[in-house]
Specification:
Blueprint lengths: L9 E3 L3 H7 L4 H20 L7 E4 L1 H9 L8 H16 L2 E2 L5 E2 L1 E7 L9 E5 L3 H11 L2 H19 L4 H15 L9 H14 L7 H15 L3 H10 L7 E7 L10 E8 L6 E9 L3 H6 L5 E2 L1 H6 L1 H18 L3 E8 L2 E9 L4 H13 L5 H7 L2 H6 L4 E2 L1 H9 L3 E4 L1 E4 L2 E7 L2 H9 L4 E5 L7 H6 L2 E4 L7 H9 L3 E3 L5 E3 L4 E6 L2 E6 L3 E5 L4 E4 L4 E2 L6 H13 L3 E5 L3 H9 L5 E5 H4 L6 H9 L3 H25 L4 E5 L12 H17 L3 H24 L11 H6 L1 H20 L5 E6 L5 H22 L6 E6 L2 H5 L1 H5 L4 E4 L1 H9 L3 H5 L2 H8 L15 H15 L4 E4 L7 H10 L3 E4 L4 H14 L4
Parallel strand pairs: 3-4, 16-17, 17-18, 18-19, 26-27, 26-33, 27-28, 28-29, 29-30, 30-31, 31-32, 32-33
Antiparallel strand pairs: 1-2, 2-7, 5-6, 5-7, 8-9, 8-11, 9-10, 11-12, 13-25, 14-24, 15-19, 16-23, 20-21, 21-22, 23-24
């Protein structure tokens, strides 16, 4: 004969030792079983903190209830009855007994805090008889009837599913009839009338206290699957299979009169992290009055004046709880007739700035270790220090006013507010006039960069997370939202149109928009922003601790001296990628580059390169100065030539326009000028046609361009070496490293290195100075990764260009995919992650592992890093740490994020 043991579904608050023992002392398991609130109520009870007696119905009971078709598991209610008797014995009151009524609260409590997402019912146990008994005991009929009307209202809305507006309408009428502003000012007679009206609305309100408790518990169980709870878990990344515990607790009353109060306090500031109590309270009120916003609360400091003894006790308890839980606590308390009770404690929600300060302060106070402090701050919180944010109040107002316009991909964090400019030249002009500008384009191209630099933020209708707009925006710290397909730009009328829930909205050039690059949201009008400050002393301390722990080096992708200076100030240990092509898009250089590209003879090409040489040399010298003593990897010209040229369509439009204006010309000078421009555009159009490739991204670019036109390779090498010689002459320690891009075969790299070394030797001979020259390659094709052992024979270092390597490995265009089918893949779960956002460990990562292993079999000390956009992604950084890379390189604005993520990769240890 077999017997089965009924699971323990219910635990009283004073049984924590037994619960821990049954779970081998694991606090995480305790929180999983009792929920965060229940575990902490039991923990406070064990610490001797005044907690109203009660019990917890476990998360396992909730899951059994839900899985059983909303039927309680066998034995649960018998255990509830036993626990209730223990509470009655501790309080000297009886549930449902009019002569000594015990009233209960019923609150949810999942493992992870989900404030306001699930249900609560207070004052359970009141009916007409127990209300009379409580009046006789307290002599306060107003308090009792106020509690009774709260029960019926909460039960009606939470348990019975009635609209709260039905109850609020009754209260509105009662206040209006009495001529008062708050519920607390209603008379006893008014409250009797309110209760009766509520009972007529909530006709299924049970008078049996046990039935009230049963229905309330089951309603809280069911609220785990409520829409707002599910949405919150989705947004917060909380699993859906945890369930919620239910905490049934003796009611204590903050609405017993002027010597009673209720409030919420944090043990440190949730906004700044500064030590000391921060919070709000109300005299003669219940807890929902504080959090609902229906009454104007008072700052917690006032409690020290009104009730100094209770305030002092609260301060002492706050310190005890912080030391016990080793974190800032969010405390819910009630003062009943001068007696302080704690109803809840949990780790407090906090801003990014507060999170950093609290972590550092707790470590300084030796409540936690430095390693724990580093683990308590997320990379996203560090990132928030670096970008302006939309003011929360202004943002909330914009939503309420219907000014939310559209949503796209949140590719570069921070807020930007400005007037709309539809082309880069207008953006530059308006910015020069002192106006804040948002550059709004269908998509951006490299020759838009001047407008992008002038703009406060960037908005495009097409493109993905690694589109040109996204990459440049992140590089320069420009907030950006891309892929806003709902936005239709008409350059003829200089307008953009969006169809919203409120109708069609037309945006004219010059109108104000506000965008949030952190969320991808766009708003009409001007929203206020909050500007962060990276000089925060606590952040500097935290990142200093990260530097002591991390193994990975952190470099920056920087193309201009100002970016290099910013990167170094943020803690970069060198430049992992300088994209020389970005230097060519400046207004005074682009014509020379176009001349060089369209030259029909080598001599003409050399003439154009000779004019570009001093410009490039000056750029490189600025970078070497900014990074004195640190490595500077300079990538030779990489993109396809068509990116420097106008399209055939643009030239055709210019030619047609010139012909029209030519027919209307009235002077010989105008005719000559127009003819000159027309012939130049026609010649350029011929060259564009001649250079046109079916697939330019896989055409004449990178090392191929340098080998077909070695004069380009020589000019860039000469500029780098001359800059290094000039820096050395200034007494600096220049460390340039030349990177050959898009290599697929060792023969390409060997020939490119020969050209580079030959030109470098010639320059050093001319300058009479020796500088070290390092030559490596960018691994961005699958073949380069597979044959990295061969490349290592020739290369001094390898740098993985994970943007193109991902694109070629998956065989998809990142720009097209991220605004097209890839979104559907992610939505439907075909792909778990965007491979352009997080490094793909199984495909791209496997190729990288093959490359690292092959290369270091030839050269064990060969340096290897990554310089794609993944270099700033914390998950990708963790992978790079495990893979044994030497460094990651990212946008200057992501350097602090990468420093923290690299330290956390060490602390997390090897992946399972």
């Amino acid at each position: 004969m077999s017997t089965t043991t009924t699971p323990t579904w219910v635990h009283t608050f004073d049984r924590l030792d037994a619960v821990e023992a049954s779970l081998d002392g694991s606090w995480d398991a305790v929180r999983s079983l009792l929920g965060g609130k229940g575990a902490n109520l039991a923990g406070m009870t064990r610490l001797g903190i005044p907690v109203p007696p009660g019990f917890t119905v476990t998360t396992e009971a909730c899951l059994a209830h839900l899985e059983g078709g909303n039927v309680p598991p066998d034995g649960m209610w018998a255990q509830v009855a036993d626990a209730l008797r223990e509470v009655e014995d501790r309080t000297g009151k009886r549930f449902g007994d009019p002569s000594s009524p015990l009233l209960l609260s019923c609150r949810s409590g999942a493992k992870f805090s989900m404030p306001g997402m699930m249900d609560t019912v207070l004052n359970i146990g009141l009916n007409d008889e127990t209300a009379k008994g409580l009046i006789a005991l307290t002599g306060d009929e107003h308090f009792v009837m106020d509690s009774y009307r709260r029960l019926v209202q909460m039960f009606g809305s939470v348990v019975l599913g009635l609209r709260d507006e039905l109850f609020e309408h009754v209260l509105d009428e009662a206040r209006a009839a009495r001529g008062v502003a708050t519920d607390a000012e209603l008379t006893v007679e008014d409250l009797h009338g309110v209760v009766q009206a509520f009972r007529r609305i909530a006709v299924r309100f049970p008078t049996d206290p046990m039935e009230q408790l049963r229905m309330a518990v089951e309603a809280v169980f069911s609220s785990w699957n409520g829409k707002r709870a599910v949405d919150y878990r989705n947004a917060a990344g909380i699993a859906h299979d945890l369930g919620t515990a239910v905490n049934v607790q003796t009611m204590v009353f903050g609405n017993l009169g002027e010597d009673s109060a209720t409030g919420v306090a944090m043990t440190r500031s949730g906004s700044t992290g500064a030590p000391g109590l921060e919070g709000d309270f109300l005299v003669n009120a219940q807890g929902e009055d504080v959090v609902s916003g229906t009454r104007a609360t008072r700052p917690i400091e006032d409690l020290a004046v009104l009730m100094p003894e209770s305030y002092g006790q609260l301060e002492t308890i706050a310190r005890v709880l912080e030391r016990h839980y080793r974190d800032m606590q969010d405390i819910e308390f009630t003062i009943e007739a001068g007696t302080l009770w704690l109803l809840q404690t949990r780790d407090g929600k906090r801003t990014a700035r507060s999170a950093v300060r609290i972590a550092v302060d707790l470590a300084t106070e030796e409540l936690i270790t430095r390693e724990e402090a580093l683990g308590r701050v997320t990379p996203d919180q560090v990132d928030s220090f670096l970008h302006p944010q939309l003011d929360p109040t202004s943002r909330a107002t914009a939503f309420a006013d219907g000014r939310a316009l559209a949503t796209g991909l949140n590719v570069s964090p921070g807020a930007a507010v400005g007037v709309v400019a539809f082309d880069p030249d207008v953006a530059v002009t308006w910015a020069a006039e002192g106006r804040d500008v948002l550059l709004v384009r269908a998509e951006t191209k490299p020759d838009d960069v001047h407008g992008m630099l002038a703009a406060r933020g960037i908005l495009t209708t097409r493109g993905g997370r690694t589109s040109h707009a996204a990459l440049v925006a992140r590089q320069f710290g420009k907030p950006a939202v891309v892929g806003v397909g709902a936005l239709d730009i008409d350059l003829t009328t200089r307008t953009a149109t969006v169809t919203t829930d409120h109708g069609e909205v037309v945006i004219n050039e010059g109108d104000w928009l506000s965008l949030d690059g952190s969320s991808g949201e766009v708003f009409t009008g001007r929203l206020d922003t909050v500007v962060p400050d990276l000089s925060d002393e606590w952040l500097s301390t935290l990142l200093g601790w990260a530097d002591e722990i991390r193994r990975l080096g952190i470099r920056a992708n920087a193309d201009y001296p100002v970016d290099a200076e910013r990167a170094r100030a943020h803690g970069a240990e060198g430049i992992g990628l300088c994209r020389t092509e970005h230097m060519f898009f400046q207004a005074d250089r682009l014509p020379l580059v176009q001349r060089m590209i369209t030259a029909t003879t080598t001599a003409d090409r050399r003439d154009a390169l000779e004019e570009l040489l001093p410009m490039q040399e000056g750029d490189f010298l600025g970078l070497l100065r900014a990074m004195d003593g640190l490595p500077v990897i300079i990538r030779l010209l990489d993109p396809p030539l068509h990116e420097f040229l106008p399209t055939h369509e643009e030239l055709g439009s210019r030619i047609t326009d010139a012909k029209i204006r030519l027919t209307a010309a009235t002077s010989l000078a105008d005719v000559d000028e127009l003819l000159g421009g027309l012939r130049a555009d026609e010649d350029l159009d011929d060259r564009v046609r001649a250079l046109q490739e079916a697939n330019p991204m896989l055409g004449l670019r990178g090392v191929r361009l340098g080998l077909v036109h070695p004069e380009i390779l020589r000019m860039q090498t000469r500029a780098i070496v001359r800059a290094a010689c000039a820096a050395a002459a200034e007494g600096l320690d220049p460390r340039p490293e030349i990177m050959v891009p898009l290599v697929s075969d060792v023969g390409e790299l060997r020939r490119a290195r020969e050209i580079v070394e030959s030109e470098a030797a010639a320059v050093m001979a001319e300058q009479g100075r020796e500088v070290p020259i390092v030559v490596g390659t960018m691994v961005e094709t699958p073949r380069a990764a597979i044959t990295a052992g061969q490349l290592a024979d020739v290369a001094d270092f390898l740098s993985f260009g994970t943007n193109d390597l991902t694109q070629m490995t998956f065989g998809i265009s990142r720009d097209d995919a991220e605004s097209g089918f890839l979104l559907e893949y992610l939505r439907t779960g075909v792909l778990a992650d965007n491979p352009f956002g997080h490094l793909d460990p199984d495909g791209v990562g496997r190729l990288m592992e093959i490359a690292i292993s092959g290369a270091r079999a030839v050269k064990p000390d060969l340096a290897a890093g990554i310089c794609g956009e993944h270099g700033g992604d914390p998950r990708s950084i963790a992978w790079c740490h495990e893979a044994g890379l030497d460094y990651v390189s990212c946008s200057p604005f992501r350097v602090p994020v990468a420093r923290l993520a690299a330290a956390q990769a060490v602390l997390q240890g090897p992946a399972a």
